[in-house]
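Known limitations

Files may contain more than one protein. Parsers should not assume a single record per file. Below, a two-record file is shown to illustrate correct handling: read the sequence, read the token line, then continue until end of file.
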Amino acid sequence: MQIGMVGLGKMGANMTERLVKGGHDVVGYDRNPAAVEQVVEAGAGGAESLEDLVSKLDSPKHVWVMVPAGAPTTSTLEALAGLLEPGSTVIDGGNSFYKDTVSIATKLAAQGIHLLDVGTSGGVWGLAGGYSMMVGGDPETVERMRPIFETLAPSATTGWGHMGPVGAGHFVKMIHNGIEYGIMQSYAEGFAILHDKEEFSLDLAQIGRVWQHGSVVRSWLLDLVVNALGENPALEGIAPYVPDSGEGRWTVAEAIELNVAAPVITLALMQRIGSRDEVEFSDRILSALRGEIGGHEVKQDS
């Protein structure tokens, strides 16, 4: 099957390579020419622009977009809408906000262009192990793209599925990432407690390796913790600054809108936001209040 791939960052490039190895005809485009050269070396075709990419695709045309969510995705989809003919299919494989997906899908549908939203998980490990894909869109279009999904998934029958209409794929991936926030926070807190129990001189990587087999907390995320601690036991050089790319915020907002309690995911998000407060002004307020209320000693900056 032929497909165009727009966005050849690490994940997009790995997906392209997996598709090529699976026997598909892939044409790749990225604003970075070096990224295009990389996938060409892996066996894909290369394009110098979106126009060039579209011109190299047979009809009906299929294009998978792997660019950052928000304005980059919106502008790319709008540009493709002006280049593709009716009957074409565009797949947004990024972490777009599902309401934005529904909106742009309506605009594309008016031009006869199908949009599938595919929440994609697997990161840099997907090249070897396959990707988990949560697909939204009309059933006919999903079925037409089945060969692509079966190649990118861990197997033809596992790791991917049709979640529902347009927007459902990104919605499910949003909740997936919110759950991930909570799990990651639990591991972080648990290992921090182990780390600070200094009289036991605990080997954190060894503990993680024990938990990897038979333990009820074993998981792929635990495997990644073990990898990180094995390479850098003290995590030297890593700043305690944790970004978020939006999905956790959207999950918390959706929980509030649906009146569903989600305290763990919410607190995990707050911890990430708190990690970026270099001034820690709120803590200064708390210290000052203790001084004002009870005359407690206020520790001064050194």
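...continuing to the second record:
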Amino acid sequence: MLLADLAATSQAVAATSKRTEKLALLAARLREAAPDEVAAVASYLSGELRQRRTGVGWRSLQGLPAPATAATLTVIEVDAAFAAMASLSGPGSTATRAALLEDLWSRATAVEQQMLAGLVSGELRQGASVGLLTDAVARAADLPLALVRRALTLSGSLTEVAAAALTGQSLEDFALVVGRGLSPMLAATATDLDDALSRMTMPVAVDWKLDGVRVQVHRTGPDVRVLSRSLDDLTTRMPELVTAALSLPVTSVVLDGEALVVDAEDRPLPFQVTASRAMSVVGAGLRPWWFDVLHLDGRDLLDEPLSVRDAVLTELVPSSQRVPRLITSSAAAAHAFATDALAKGHEGVVVKAVDAPYEAGRRGGSWLKVKPRHTLDLVVLAVEHGHGRRREWLSNLHLGARHGDGFVMLGKTFKGLTDELLRWQTARFRELEVEDDGWVVTVRPEQVVEIAFDGVQTSTRYPGGVALRFARVLRYRDDKAAAEADTLDDVLRLRT
């Protein structure tokens, strides 16, 4: 299959807002994929490269060759090129990777270059979510949707499931295998605790929401694997979790939870401390905080309600390693529990339906996270050209806070931007344009934007020395001048 065909489908999917049309387009393209192309085609249609780390970022895309005039690149060739880039390391790897990227780019047409840029940057905004693509795989393979979703739940890999489904392999063969990661269940967002409670049937479970590293631990006898939220292997970096798993009186188990560094009073240290420790065995000790059990000694628990899984977890794991949980029918008790979680330095709470199974790989209504929202009024310092569905607009904002006589950058965001805001800000920032290097448009620091975020953490990436976690646009503040924006000192006071 030519990459141009895939890029055309991507553009067509992005151009329609109708789910049925998106689904038909995706399914048709999947059906046309050859057996050795299916995994890459499914991955690209979901907006991701198959390789987790290629060493290629948005800066690598500057100064690349002009588009080719004829479409010759195949999906297999593109996948092989990125696989080659991902395999490079050591002296000379940067130059070799750049040469491979330049060769790939020189063979790509304009529409193919747009798709490749979106895949590399992670901004292929075409409106094809994992859920939609899962439905498309089921339609393309003429299989029950429930069967495909179940296989995805147990494998953790949509590309693996797509390849099996579209090459005639039995999806019944997918089962929970201790040692093989499965996609974690995710929480949707509630505006506040009352909103979360109104969307649940009492009683509910209310858990502390920890700002740690999501982990999934598999143990079979003496063998333990620690996996990240994205199923990367963290075993050698988290010996404390291996020790904790081996201390349990079991033969086989799969646990879901968080790894977190706390102080002597059990208060969480800043997220970057935990994140840094998770990348190295040097530093403060990690502590496991389990909140779910998915398998125990040959018994799969995925389909059991949370009430059953909670009872198993309580019996199995000491309280010092469990996320605090309240099962209650009282809104007042839930509020008091949430207040206590915040007072102890945690992010908030997660409200969970006690009668719900573990819906691996899904962000449904059975888990609802509740966190207080922080906001800042910041100034836009620059804006990046969009990709994929946003290719005609200016998208990613460079955010700055007042500092001294100027502004200092805190980070970037393209979250929260509706099509209406994208159109408005494209026109607005063209008015304020100072320079356009083809990737970043530098603007006069005049436009104030209200940003919501989950926290402030230390960062060496940006000049301000801090970065906003999960920043997203709430609205533009035309009623405020840049001189009224928040200062770096205001931001530093929010640092945890």
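Parsers that stop after the first record will miss the second one. For reference, the second record is described as follows. The longest helix spans residues 19-32.
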